Amino acid sequence: MLVQIKDDDTLSFFLDETAGFRFLEVYVETQQIQPEATPQNYQQGGYMENPEMSQQWGEYMSLFAGLFRLVRKFYTPSGCCSRPNLDTFGNLSDASSEPDEVDYPIPPEDGPNDVDINIMAENFAQGMSSSPEPVQTNRTTPQSFYRSMPFFDQTFPEIPADSIDVPTMKYAKFYNKNEGKLDVGMLFKNKVELIEAVKDHSIRHARREYYVTESSKTKWKVVCLHSTPGQVQQNPSYGIKHVIQTVKDHTGYDIPYQKAWYSLKMAREIVYGTWESSVQKLPKYMGALKKYNPGTIVEWEHKAFQPSTGAHVIGYVFWAFAPCIEGFQFCRNVISVDGTHLYTKYRHKMLIAAAMDGNQQVLPLAFAIVDDESTSSWKWFLTLLSRHVIRGRRGVCLISDRHPGIIKAVREGSDFVSPHGAHRYCLRHVCSNFNTHYKNVILKDLCWRAGSEYQIRKFNRIMEEIKSQNVAAFEFLDKINKEKWTASHDGGWRTGILTTNMSECINGVLKGARRLPLTAIVEITLARTVNYFVTRERRSHAMVANGQLWTDFAYKMFNQWHQKSIDHTVTKYNHRQQSASVVTKRQSGFGLNTHVVKITNRECSCGKWTQFGIPCSHAQKVCAAYNINAASMVKNYYDVQAYKNTYSKAFQPLYPEDYWDAPEFRLVHDTTIRISTRPGRNQTSRIHNEMDWRQTRERQQAQQRENSSRQ
């Protein structure tokens, strides 16, 4: 065993008779260093700090020999020369804490090449005589061989391994509490010392928990607890860059991208399972979901049956949580649908349906996983949505983009056609398609203004402005049915909702989950929806305790319009119909507009009352003129009680998997839709386009400057 002795405690350990060592060979190695690598005050070989050491080298060498009485001479060459394959730590992995019984060779007769150790020590001391004259001290020589010898307290201090011209030595190391670092090949006196060192290192430096996997008299094995799986479970969006940063924060090391990718992949498989095991688990999980939350809907559409394996090939799966189905009955009659990509091993897409509660917050209604957005998949999804969520409710408006599959599925028969319901287009998608053809940000902003105006006269004025700039752009919009994309011609079906942001909001919330296996995706939709219900149910109780009549959103809109109504002027026309005209106040170049209000019909020519269901400023002014309480005209879905009822049905937690019933069938992936691998990193997020840009005045000015430069 080759050991580097660096301190007095280590030296005393090897000189102790109870340690069980039969003999000890000491090798003193000196290294020449450059002056700049020598610490200050040690420029003369250490004499300024320990001038007496030159006289005591021979004494210390004699003490070594005296402690081991049986060994007085060097009989063979150094053991270092007989170990050509010595590893970095002196082959310490084969060493044992207990010395082995070895047959030592019989010392040979004295020969001409043998050198007495005392002679070596004397010659060594003579070799030091060329140094400056040592300073006389009163240090006394130890009288007993077994007393503590403060050898390292008097010698030249250790030079750091990374100093100039000082190589790193291949010796076994001992744990230093001051440094607190653990390295491969460290030696410990006993098991207790090892345990204390690991505890000290884990608490003060590594800051990692561990658990014992094996413990005996000769072995103590521990394994660090993984932190990545816990972070992945808490945050599905936890990505490769987070892994790299976490490792750097804890250890100070930068790990390669590939290593971070593999560690994240392993962590996700530990938490969520593999793609194949997850889809096999899906039927069992869905069964537990229905069992512990009665009323939850799960529908399957299989592609094929494999007789050889007895498994079904997954096609479509639809699920809707019972509390969401019940809560929709207290929301406005508008549903937004959208599709999103899943960045999984197999080609899948997720369809989402969402509603808006009385506090202008998104309520998830239904989800589905399909292989592609097509007419058949959308028709299947909308049919189940009508059957299980709408359940015969009339007057429901569906808002979507202009995906051909959705349009065709609605036309072929659904609850979203007149007279049962209505189908409207997302205004943001209309503007994006418009800009794809004409690539003019100013025209695109005019398109948005035209679609979002609630007054027909303002809509016509904006359309004329578009026509004056580009006739083809005007004709493009004029060909689209106005009731499909404009608020002014909508007739109140939208209730103020112009886009599919409801469903896309859910899409954004689930962004981190879209790269996970299928069962994990369903689990996360449940977890996020439960969080919505818990938070909003608590908020609804606070509203009731405060004595509110309406939700926070309704209060804000009502009070905002009430402040504007103070400066309006009213002219009554008919007491029976409670009709009147209202003129707004002129300010900053605006105002002096006339609006017609009919309280009996609950409508105003500005269009806002019809859309939002809250009396606008003009209607509130007329109500005050006829001594009518405007608060009674607010739609019922804004009531606090309706908001409370939306989230009154609670979710029930799922029991552990051991309590789940056996699945009714086996499920496997369709291998024909497996995404082929290619070099490089796969795309895991949609590339942003102009539809994601904000509508700002700076954009318009930049476009104008660009057009001017071209001219």
Automatic annotation (TrEMBL):
Q: Which residues cross the membrane?
A: none
Chain positions covered by the region annotation Disordered: 678-711
- The protein's name in its UniProt record: SWIM-type domain-containing protein
Keyword presence, Zinc-finger: yes
Pfam families given in the database record: MULE, SWIM
Basic and acidic residues bias (residue ranges)? 687-700
A GO MF term: zinc ion binding
- Alphabetical list of PROSITE patterns matching this protein: ZF_SWIM
The biased composition feature labelled Low complexity covers 701-711
UniProt keyword list: Metal-binding, Zinc, Zinc-finger
Identify the residues that the record assigns to the SWIM-type domain, covering every copy: 595-627
PANTHER family referenced in this protein's UniProt entry, alphabetically: MUDR FAMILY TRANSPOSASE (PTHR31973:SF195), POLYPROTEIN, PUTATIVE-RELATED (PTHR31973)
Xref: SMART domains: ZnF_PMZ
